[in-house]
Amino acid sequence: MKEKKFYSVSFLLVFLLAGSIFYFKDSLLISANSFKCLKCHKGKDSLETYLNEGRFKTADELRKLVREGPKAGLHITSSDEDLERAIKYLNLK
Predict the structure, then answer these.
(1) Based on the domain organization, do 74 and 92 belong to the same domain?
(2) pLDDT (tens digit per residue) in 16-29
(3) Cβ atoms of 37 and 86 closer than 8 Å
(4) Which terminus of the chain, N or C, has fewer Cβ atoms within 10 Å?
(5) Which residues 6+ apart lie within 8 Å of 41 measured at CB?
């Protein structure tokens, strides 16, 4: 009888642990994709691609490119908050 109880409790703990992992995994994905930059910058136009191509190397260069660069008109609706999230996302200093 104790073995049945042990297995049912073990099953319940494994089930709760797996559910928690899936919940937090999905919430992390949502938070990573929740800022505006990642909605437009995908594939060959991704932020990582631009960084690797050398279009910018520092946070200040990215700020200047977004606000004063050739595509500044497209970024006029991008908030400073989104820009700071992109800087954190790319680990720029």
Answers:
(1) yes
(2) 777 766 666 544 54
(3) yes
(4) N
(5) 47, 50
Amino acid (1-letter code) at residue 2: K
Return the CA Rg of the chain.
21
At 70 the three-state DSSP class reads: coil
In the structure, what pLDDT confidence band is assigned to residue 32 with cuts at 50, 70 and 90? low
Which residue matches tokens 């191509």? 53
User: Higher model confidence: residue 56 or residue 19?
Assistant: 56
Q: Cα–Cα distance between 14 and 60 in angstroms, integer?
A: 47
What sections of the chain are H helices per DSSP? 2-32, 37-40, 47-53, 59-68, 80-89
| 74 and 89 share one domain | yes
Which residue carries 């073990």 as its tokens?
A: 10
